[in-house]
Amino acid sequence: MSIRLPHYLILLFMCAALGLRAQVQKDAQLWKGLVLQKTFLDNRLQLSLNEEVRLRNNMSEVRTSFTDVSLYYKFLKRWAGGLGYRYSIRPDQNSHRLYGDLAWKPKIKGPLGLTIRTRVQHDFDRLDQGTTLRPRLWLDYNLPKTKLEPYVGAEPFFRLDEAANFDHYRLYAGLKYPLRKKVELRLGYILAQDIDGAEREQDHVFMVRVTIDLDKDNDKDEINSEPMLGW
Predict the structure, then answer these.
(1) Domain range for residue 106?
(2) Residue 24 lies inside a defined structural domain of this protein
(3) Contact at 8 Å (CB) between 224 and 211?
(4) Read out DSSP for 141-199?
């Protein structure tokens, strides 16, 4: 199967490789999360609860903690859609997020998997609000004769409000490993880069996430919603 990269992803990788002339403020962060998943309707409907804490300032202080609830429906063999809500607790003030996802997982022979997801999210608090478009390309590879599954991904952020622009991107790399029959460990690294403004933030994020499957049937064909979860 021949797959062509969208133009925005080519631009994204060019920005990451070449860099932009601006003052960059770097930070090391740690994101720690726990995900609970449960499926219904012959595994076509999936409910997820994500609890996460994110540390900033070289992992020395809490940036945010949030509760994220999402519901995804697999309406075709390789298509799924979802809706979600996130409540975030921050040092300055709390915020809300509503989002909708549409994901496509094309058929590829061999151990390589591809997921293309598009998200539209609306964030708001007492003082401000904004809408963002987040298309994401996700590649994972099931290493033969092992339980390890490395992955890479890329995700640009497009503002859809009055200041409409391409102002941020994330690059992902990591691996998944099943600790037990119903428990999966995900370790990852995220490069999060601002590309708009005179002083741009560059975050080096180390991520640890544990996912627990609450279903009794462990041999089902699960909805692939892990790449849909918002980091």
Answers:
(1) 7-19+31-228
(2) no
(3) no
(4) E--TTSS-EEEEEEEEEEE-STT-SEEEEEEEEEEEEESSSSEEEEEEEEEEEE-SSSE
pTM of the model: 0.85
Q: What is the CATH number of the domain that holds 57?
A: 2.40.160.40
User: CA angle, 141 as apex, 36 and 49 as ends, to 5°?
Assistant: 10
Q: Which tokens belong to 152?
A: 């890479």
Give me 42's structure tokens: 């012959």
- CB burial of 17-52 (b: ≥16 within 10 Å; e: otherwise) equals eeeeeeeeeeeebbbebebebebeeeeebbebebeb
Residues forming a β-bridge with 210: 34, 185
Nearest Cα to Cα of residue 159 among 103, 121, 203? 121
Q: Which of 86-90, 161-165, 197-201 has the lowest mean pLDDT?
A: 197-201
For 61-75, 88-102, 188-202, which range has the lowest pLDDT when averaged over its residues?
188-202
Q: Kindly state the helix (H) or strand (E) to which residue 185 belongs, with its residue range.
A: strand 183-194
Q: Provide φ and ψ at 126, rounded to 5°.
A: -70, -25
Rounded to the nearest angstrom, the gap between the alpha carbon of residue 1 and the centroid of all alpha carbons in its chain is 25
What is the spatial distance between Cα 72 and Cα 55, in angstroms, rounded to a whole number?
28
Structural domains of the chain, count: 1
Write out pLDDT tens, residues 119-129: 999 999 999 99
pLDDT in tens, 62-72: 999 999 999 99
